[in-house]
């Protein structure tokens, strides 16, 4: 391993050594663990007898990414078909990369794999040069990404508590350490559901296949909105017209359709239906940012700022990096950085340098040394 790559691994190791007591996973002995190493290899179907064994592993073999299963198993170290699932948290993945928000993507860089045309900002669905849909994106992370993801979390919590009757104490919110959040239902009957039932819940949450016209029903000489569906009831606050005349039915349908789009929750349904999914270990570091994955209360997620609250790496030692992709202006720990152009060399605090390196925007320059 190059000395500069080893430097980041040692920073991760030092983090896990100092944060040993903050690493906590409930029911460790019944969980499967998975790690992605600095060598790029993924290792899964790992089990630990207790929390201390897990903590020692993170220190002596610091991973680039660390995960544990949302399921409890009788034999977590076995292959999937032999694990013996007991129950599984109901997991929802909210990632700003899927929300296609222009503000969030302002610093992202896209490239067509077919012809090589590139640009900044929200990536087109098809290349404007050759028409190919083979697009690759180096996503940026900014405050707007967290803001739009946080709004989806808020909407999801409304659906879970109002439509499914989930006790708020059973809901766990986690910042992933990158561009979004995981929301889990950890107790209650929903944790016993199979894949098909979980898919149906995800489809409901997303308002997928919702027939808008069926909720506009005759009411004397006009029409009114049937509010028995939770999404429809929440959409009414954006409409303000529960009843309309017969000639306004089409306008009501369009209003309801656009309002449903505002209240539906954008989640990855394939994640929710998969009982074999894994989620990040709380307080572990994310391999694309160096930020901490944080468990959050219903109050904390509303005000959490990852550029202050999730930074896990120190300022020292400062590191010299060479910019290989344009970097927008950004702030970390109330200090401003950038913008930087391709080819520039900069000396940055370790947490900012690692952030750029892990995002693929910079390379370490030879001569970085970590004194431990």
From TrEMBL:
Membrane-crossing residue ranges in chain numbering: none
A GO term for molecular function: DNA-directed RNA polymerase activity
Gene Ontology biological process: DNA replication, synthesis of primer
Enzyme nomenclature, EC number: 2.7.7.-
Gene3D superfamilies from the UniProt entry: DNA primase, PRIM domain
InterPro entries hit by this protein: DNA_primase_S, DNA_primase_ssu_PriS
Record's keyword terms, sorted: DNA replication, DNA-directed RNA polymerase, Magnesium, Manganese, Metal-binding, Nucleotidyltransferase, Primosome, Transcription, Transferase
Family: Belongs to the eukaryotic-type primase small subunit family.
Quaternary structure note: Heterodimer of a small subunit (PriS) and a large subunit (PriL).
Protein name: DNA primase small subunit PriS
Organism the protein comes from: Korarchaeum cryptofilum (strain OPF8)
Taxonomic path: Archaea, Thermoproteota, Candidatus Korarchaeia, Candidatus Korarchaeales, Candidatus Korarchaeaceae
């Amino acid at each position: 391993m190059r000395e500069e790559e080893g430097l980041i691994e040692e920073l991760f190791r030092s983090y896990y050594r100092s944060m040993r007591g903050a690493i906590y996973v409930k029911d460790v002995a019944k969980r499967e663990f998975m790690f992605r190493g600095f060598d790029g290899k993924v290792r899964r179907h790992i089990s630990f007898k207790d929390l201390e064994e897990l903590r020692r592993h993170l220190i002596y073999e610091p991973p680039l990414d660390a995960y544990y299963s949302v399921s409890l198993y009788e034999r977590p170290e076995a292959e999937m078909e032999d694990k013996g699932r007991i129950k599984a948290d109901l997991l929802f993945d909210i990632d700003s990369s899927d929300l296609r928000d222009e503000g969030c993507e302002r610093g992202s860089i896209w490239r067509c794999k077919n012809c090589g045309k590139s640009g900044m900002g929200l990536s087109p669905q098809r290349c404007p040069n050759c028409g190919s849909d083979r697009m690759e994106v180096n996503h940026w992370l900014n405050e707007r990404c967290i803001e739009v993801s946080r709004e989806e979390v808020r909407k999801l919590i409304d659906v879970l508590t109002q439509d499914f009757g989930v006790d708020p104490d059973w809901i766990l919110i986690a910042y992933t350490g990158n561009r979004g959040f995981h929301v889990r239902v950890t107790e209650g009957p929903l944790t016993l559901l199979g894949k098909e039932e979980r898919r149906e819940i995800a489809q409901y949450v997303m308002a997928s296949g919702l027939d808008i016209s069926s909720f506009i029903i005759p009411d004397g000489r006009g029409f009114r909105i049937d509010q028995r569906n939770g999404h429809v009831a929440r959409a009414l606050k954006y409409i303000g017209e529960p009843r309309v005349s017969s000639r306004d039915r089409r306008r009501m349908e369009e209003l309801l359709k656009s309002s449903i789009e505002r209240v539906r929750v954008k989640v990855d349904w394939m994640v929710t239906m998969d009982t074999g999914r894994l989620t990040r270990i709380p307080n572990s570091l994310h391999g694309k940012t160096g930020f901490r994955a944080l468990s959050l209360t219903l109050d904390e997620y509303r005000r959490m700022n990852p550029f202050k609250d999730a930074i896990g790496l120190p300022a020292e030692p400062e590191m010299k990096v060479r910019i290989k992709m344009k970097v927008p202006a950004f702030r970390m720990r109330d200090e401003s950085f950038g913008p930087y152009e391709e080819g520039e060399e900069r000396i940055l605090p370790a947490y900012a340098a690692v952030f750029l390196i892990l995002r693929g925007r910079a390379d370490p320059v030879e001569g970085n040394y970590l004194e431990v």
